[in-house]
Amino acid sequence: MLRAIEEGTGLVGFHGTADAFRSSPAFHFLLGGSFTAHPGDIVEYTVHITLHSDPITCGLSDFQVRSEQYYMLVAPDNQVLATTTFRQQPYPWIDGTVMPVAWKRRWGSGRIFYSAIGHAPEEWDIPEAQTLMQRGVTWASGRW
User: Fold this and answer.
1) Does an H or E element contain 83, and which?
2) Among 37, 38, 64, 93, which is least packed by CB within 10 angstroms?
3) How far apart are CA 46 and CA 59, in angstroms?
4) Which residues make Cβ contacts (< 8 Å) with residue 87, sequence separation at least 6?
5) Buried b / exposed e across 79-98, counting CB within 10 Å, b at 16+?
6) What are phi and psi of 140, to 5 degrees?
7) H helices then E strands: how many in the chain?
8) Which CATH code is given to the segment(s) 2-140?
9) 3-state class of 8 per DSSP?
10) Long-range contact list for 121-125, CB < 8 A, 24+ apart?
């Protein structure tokens, strides 16, 4: 899989993809992140669009999600498209931590898009979440 992506195949991951293949550091280098925890379990949080000039996020506004808010270890070379900010509950030491929610990156000639949204099917009823994923798939497929 790593070689196929390096040679130009795209990869789209969402939510639990960041928790897959835990024993494969190479996969997490490829993806650009690794799940650590979702403090508070299901919470309401804001997704902040951070890169308004990108074709994936162009015209999208910040939006609310009720889901698992992923705390992750992320690669510094990700091109971050959206973030969330943690509140202190249940862990006061994460209060104010800004965490990527969606990013894109390259792996050789391949394109990777990841979004932490997607724990429950109703999250895809949020127009901005749906558009973010659709455009991420289009970008990763090389159609842009």
Assistant:
1) strand 79-85
2) 93
3) 17
4) 43, 95
5) bbbbbbebbeeeeeebeeee
6) -65, -30
7) 3, 8
8) 3.40.50.880
9) coil
10) 123/65, 123/66, 123/67
With beta carbons less than 8 A apart as the criterion, state whether 99 and 130 touch. Answer: no
3-state DSSP percent of the chain in helix, strand and coil, to 5: 25, 35, 40
32: tokens are: 């650009």
CA-nearest of 123, 143, 139, 142 to 56 is 139
Hey, how many other C-beta atoms are within 10 angstroms of the C-beta on 119? 18
* H-only helix segments in the chain: 2-6, 25-31, 127-140
Residues 6+ apart with CB under 8 A from 133: 12, 14, 115, 117, 118, 124
Position 101 pLDDT exceeds 90: yes
Please, which residues have CB within 8 angstroms of residue 117's CB and are 6 or more apart in sequence?
14, 15, 47, 65, 67, 101, 102, 123, 129, 132, 133
DSSP assigned state of 93:
G
Residue 90 pLDDT > 90, yes or no?
no
Report the C-alpha gap between 123 and 43 in whole angstroms.
Answer: 13
Q: What is the pLDDT of residues 44-59, one digit of tens each?
A: 999 999 999 999 999 9
